[in-house]
Amino acid sequence: MKLDKLGVGIIGASPNGGWGSMGHIPALQALPNFEVTAVSTTRQESANETSKRFGIPHAFTDPYELAIHPDVDIVTITVRVPEHDKLVRTALKAGKHVYCEFPLGRTTKEAADLLQIAEEKGVRHIIGLQARANPAVNYIKDLISSGYVGKVLSVNVSYSLPPFPTASGTIDQAHLYILDKVNGANQLTISNGHLLDGMTYMLGQFSEVSAIVGTQFKNVRVIETGEIIQATSPDYVLVNGILENGAVVSSHVRNTNVARLTLEINGTEGDLVMVSKDKMMFQMDSFILKGAQGQSKDLEVLTIPSQYYWVPSELNYGPSYNVAQLYTKFYKNLRENTHDTPDFNTAVNMHHLFDTIEKAAETGIRQKV
To answer: Domains of the chain by range and CATH?
Structure first.
């Protein structure tokens, strides 16, 4: 494998607004050390359309054909969560590095099994927890580490999202699968998963949690057909807990009609606040940052230093930006043989945290993490 330019094959790059074509292809095409060399979708017509639209040399319907192609060094999987297990195994069988979107699997066991296979194969693996590459998140992490707020005392998060079934109780057919808890893609694993991973990356791990997890919209109407579907997936998640550093955390993720997100960190010497700037999900937003030190000062807007931006300036901030940041970090890891990119180990740890949160919610008893 030559490190000057890595070939990436994307499984799931539909031309009609899928995450592969919306997030990954623009990110990779902006980076000098990567090239999208192949795409795979379930229909040859759509694979050909994506190939033609983005100038990608190879188009497949068989994921294994993509994975074994000599022009593919990294296999990226951007399909729905229920397909991750099969497709990650396909990529690992081919002996290629793997980038899989989060969650890694439908269950902790699926994720742990994939981690084991990846480690046995000796390939590098990356999980799509791109908040860890967000300039705002990394700047806040460093401010906390440098003592900007002193000892962290509390963290409070209010996070509301229209993309999941909203207060109107409707959903489009493309997202129907998230209503079934078995599929592993819901407010706990996706919205809350990216948020909690970003929080623990900045602030440290939980030592214990209590939680309320539930489904407020149990009967959801399909917009296109009018059909009523019974939902079993959680659509709101309230997590309270204590971090290993002693900080108290309160985080509420729920459905609303208007997107907004505020994350406040309070310490003995100051405060930091992250407010949604783009009304996008936590892992995508560029954020407005504010800070204050001392008891008598007002919050002031903080400017993120240039060293936290790792990708070409012509890539405007949007859904693909932090994906490009994550690929950039992964390339650095490969070149320098380092391991600070979120990987399948990171994913498995998050799956275990989900299990603990669910147990706390089911039992009503605070759980050790």
So the answer is: 6-123 (3.40.50.720), 131-308+343-363 (3.30.360.10)
